[in-house]
Design goal:
heterodimer, A: 146 residues, alpha+beta, DNA polymerase, domain 1, 5 strands, 32% helix, B: 754 residues, Aldehyde Oxidoreductase, domain 4, 4 domains, 28 strands, 29% helix
């Protein structure tokens, strides 16, 4: 059995996925959701973060065949106020980690609309940014509602 | 008239002479401080597409029929391929091509480090390509391995000849000094670890090779690939609109590009070759380890009279011996300086430039040494630095230097010392430290830009530069908007394509803004002049009374006030084109950047844990184009530097030369939870001599002083001298024990004296 049925950003998809294929690879290569980035491909950096039923998940170490919930990728969050907050705070340098940062942050503010600095740092510590935009990310999340 | 001149160019401390054609009349420097657009905060023009995941990076490119590549790497630190058989790999399903040693640049028979590329396979999927590597039959002849840099130097195994430097008489000055401090400082190998790994997609269209690549220098890739393939440069088109970080490791094409180009040629398919994260941590370049044996001699009033240093760069199998001796030669006024710098060729992965190569390491050693001198003299470290302020660089005047103003900006942070130290208890000791910074960053010629104003009054800036994440795209738009007198949102920047814009410099050495910025300003001035000529004829006015302000063509008497799009709209589909070039750097002057950082730390003397609590930075890089983006550069440099100082260290097995820290859980980079409070200030004085823009680069300066400032704060908090990076808990506890022993010894001596 190699076909998977997935719900991504509210739409259903059927795709061929060899057993062992990661969700990240399926999303990027088969479904064209290239906003989800792969930076380490072993669950250490957070660039591939997507939400499954609102919970942030590392899609590069999630098997495509194991997913049962509804997936939200950065493509499903393009109108989220966090995007504007990241832009205004200058929380984007090279931008390769940014979609993963936004997906993680969106899960945080959905559960905790007014997170404390400690809550932001706890939730976001799994998303590495080599450019070092962290102070800006913190500011963006604090100001996400404008 | 075009003037042909001979001028000098600097990149990361390496100088070369070049011929240059100067065309434009020089423009007048804008006044200091914020203008209409330049000097005011601007959000990045491309941030929305990056944040929304719409920006297309090299990693995201999927071309029809594209093949994927895996690279066979040497398991040995030094070996020769005696025999290799690719046929079993080529016979596997999905495999479309394979290359062995000598079949692409970078694939060599002799492997000089564990991880050196020797063969490559292209297949329909990456999994197939990787599986095929196991089928390649290789017989290795193992060769002698040298891993210890001291060993390499003893054998005279250098990457380049040792570099000696001397001024004055070091020996005699040292003998006459009242106080002498000596120290040996060591820095570890650290890795760039850009989030997007090194990669390229190569696609032949007819006789033209399209190269999509994550790079800091599209024009350099174009030239290097053309040369390697023996084809004209204009038959190589290099595209990089978005790239996921470089930090110096992506200045040249790398074997992945040559492999993809050759396999694409052989298979007649587009080929993607990307390093995995583990390859990235092994073979993609590093900031090499250093050993620095340093000496300072001073008079009892704090005047530094002698500086000496023996610097060893453990370069690796390839790379260059960066200027670790530079800070010692340049940062302070000292008549008697003697340095020697060795580049050890060893069987370890290659060095690649990493954000102020050499100066990051050399500043750690020098600025720790200066603080140890201050301690010995019982002198305020800031006062000691002011006292030895340099007023020229090796006899050359500075194009501009405002380090003293940086010290003034830092004073209020330095004055927090008593308050910070008072927070200490039995376990956690608090202290404040500082370090200064000197570095290049003036950029230089050549670089070019074109401007285009269309009949709807919109402006395009076209240049074959790249924005590696520093925000240079937005800075260029600001410069064009300022010169042309239009709102920022009317200007777009077309970049990242060698076939669709004129040459622009590499994004390294903090050079993009100071190199390309003046070309953009000149191109905008050219197009503005043409628009004013058109307005003068249309409205029967003299050119000198016409200006463009905030998108309006206006006359001095106020009678003319016409929207730009209305004036150029007359021309329907015509376009007004301008061009601009970067002029030469001032002759006989030293173009340098300066700064100081003041750091507050807390040290747990029981466990050796170090926390950086606050960093205040004051930098002098000439005019600030975008204060918002500039602050991000400072914060980013400081955070990366905190990683270098406290947690990052590439570990290698000293028996086999194999890299042990190949994943991001083993190689520990800072996370959001590691970030201190960062305060960022600028002198923001245009460099009147450098260019009509007066700006220097800012990508590198902020990472330079942070390590020493942290170490000096640790000394202030605990009395311990840390001499090694990273300052692991082990190193911290060692330094604390050493400080304890020294204190006890002093106590015994004073009892004995009584």
């Amino acid at each position: 059995m190699s076909d998977v049925l997935l719900t991504v950003n509210g739409q259903s998809y059927s795709a061929y996925a060899p057993v062992g294929m990661s969700l990240a690879q399926l999303l990027r290569e088969e479904l064209g959701f290239t906003g989800t980035k792969i930076a380490c491909n072993e669950g250490h950096c957070g660039a591939c973060t997507v939400q499954i039923d609102g919970v942030p998940v590392l899609s590069c170490i999630t098997l495509a065949h194991n997913v049962t919930g509804e997936i939200t990728t950065i493509e499903g969050l393009r109108d989220h106020p966090l995007i504007e907050a990241f832009v205004e705070a200058d929380a984007v340098q090279c931008g390769f980690c940014t979609p993963g940062q936004v997906v993680s942050a969106a899960a945080l503010v959905a559960a905790t609309p007014d997170p404390t600095v400690d809550q932001i740092r706890h939730q976001m510590a799994g998303n590495i940014c080599r450019c070092g935009t962290y102070p800006r990310i913190e500011e963006a999340i604090q100001k996400w509602r404008g | 008239m075009a003037r042909l001149i001979r001028t000098e160019k600097e990149v990361e401390g390496r100088f070369e002479e070049l011929w240059l054609v100067v065309e434009e009349d020089p423009l007048q420097q804008w006044p200091a401080g914020p203008q209409s657009v330049v000097g005011r905060p601007a959000v990045r023009q491309d941030a929305p597409e990056r944040a929304r995941g719409e920006a297309r990076y090299t990693a995201d490119i999927q071309l029809p029929g594209m093949l994927h590549t895996a690279v066979l790497r040497s398991p040995h630190a030094h070996a020769r391929v005696k025999r290799i058989d690719l046929a079993p790999a080529l016979a596997l399903p999905g495999v479309r091509g394979a290359l062995g040693p000598g079949e692409a640049q970078g694939l060599d028979e002799e492997a000089g480090f564990a991880g050196a590329p020797v063969a490559a396979v292209a297949a329909d999927t990456f999994a197939q390509a990787r599986a095929a590597l196991a089928a390649i039959d290789v017989e290795w002849e193992q060769l002698e391995v040298v891993l210890d840099p001291d060993d390499a130097i003893a054998r005279k195994q250098f990457t380049s000849d040792p570099v000696e430097y001397a001024r004055g008489g070091f020996e005699q000055a040292l003998a006459e000094a009242d106080v002498v401090v000596e120290g040996t400082y060591r820095t570890a190998v650290v890795l760039h670890n850009s989030m997007e790994t090194h990669q390229a997609v190569c696609d032949w269209v007819g006789d033209t090779l399209n190269v999509y690549i994550s790079t800091q220098y599209i024009w350099g890739v174009r030239d290097a690939v053309a040369e390697a393939l023996g084809i004209p440069g204009d038959k190589v088109r290099v595209v990089c609109e978005f790239m996921g970080g470089g930090f110096g490791a992506k200045n040249d094409p790398g074997e992945y590009t040559f492999i993809a180009a050759e396999l694409a040629k052989r298979t007649r398919r587009p080929v993607h070759c990307a390093l995995t994260r583990r390859e990235e941590n092994t073979a993609a370049g590093n900031r090499n380890a250093t050993i620095q044996k340093l000496t300072v001699g001073a008079r009892s009033d704090g005047t530094i009279v002698a500086l000496g240093g023996e610097f060893t760069n453990a370069v690796g199998w390839s790379g260059w011996s960066a200027g670790t001796d530079g800070p010692m030669q340049m940062l302070y006024a000292c008549d008697n300086v003697r340095t020697i710098r060795y580049g050890a060729k060893i069987n370890t992965p290659p060095m690649k430039a990493f954000r102020a190569p050499g100066f990051v390491e050399g500043t750690f050693g020098l600025e720790c040494l200066i603080d140890e001198l201050a301690a010995k003299l019982d002198m305020d470290p800031l006062e000691l630095r002011r006292k030895n302020y340099a007023s020229a660089n090796d006899g050359k005047p500075y194009s501009s230097k405002n380090l003293m103003q940086c010290y003034e900006l830092a004073q209020k942070h330095w004055d927090r010392r008593d308050e910070v130290r008072a927070r200490s208890d039995d376990t956690w000791k608090h202290g404040v430290g500082m370090a200064s910074q000197i570095w290049y960053g003036g950029g230089g010629p050549p670089s070019y830009a074109w401007t285009r104003v269309t009949s709807d009054g919109r402006v395009s800036v076209i240049t074959a530069m790249q924005d590696i994440g520093t925000g240079t795209r937005t800075a260029m738009a600001q410069i064009a908007a300022e010169e042309l007198g239009v709102p920022l949102d009317r200007v777009e920047v077309v970049l990242g394509d060698s076939a669709r814009g004129p040459y622009a410099t590499l994004s390294a050495g903090s050079s993009t803004t100071p190199s390309v910025g003046p070309a953009v300003r000149a191109a905008a001035a050219d197009v503005k002049r043409q628009i004013i000529e058109i307005a003068a004829q249309r409205h029967d006015l003299e050119e000198r009374v016409i200006d463009i302000k905030d998108g309006m063509v206006v006359s001095a008497d106020g009678n003319l006030s016409q929207p730009l799009e209305e004036l150029v709209g007359l021309l329907e589909d015509a376009q007004i084109l301008g061009k601009g070039a970067r002029g030469p750097n001032p002759t006989g002057m030293s173009v340098l950047t300066f700064g100081v950082q003041v750091v507050e730390v807390a040290v747990d003397v029981e466990t050796g844990e170090v926390r950086v609590e606050r960093v205040a930075a004051a930098h002098d890089v000439g005019r600030i184009i975008n204060p918002l983006g500039a602050r991000s550069q400072v914060e980013g440099g400081i955070i990366q530097g905190i990683g270098h100082t406290l947690s990052e260290q590439r570990l290698m097995d000293m028996e086999t030369g194999r890299i042990l820290t190949t994943s991001l859980d083993a190689y520990r980079m800072p996370t959001i939870a590691d970030v201190p409070e960062i305060v960022c200030e600028f002198v923001d004085e245009p460099d009147e001599h450098l260019t009509s823009l007066g700006s220097k680069g800012l990508g590198e300066p902020p990472i330079i002083p942070i390590s020493a400032a942290i170490a000096n704060a640790i000394r202030d908090a605990t009395g311990a001298d840390v001499h090694e990076l990273p300052i692991t808990r082990e190193e911290m506890l060692r330094a604390l024990r050493e400080a304890d022993e020294k204190a006890r010894e002093r106590q015994r001596e004073s009892i004995g004296a009584r």
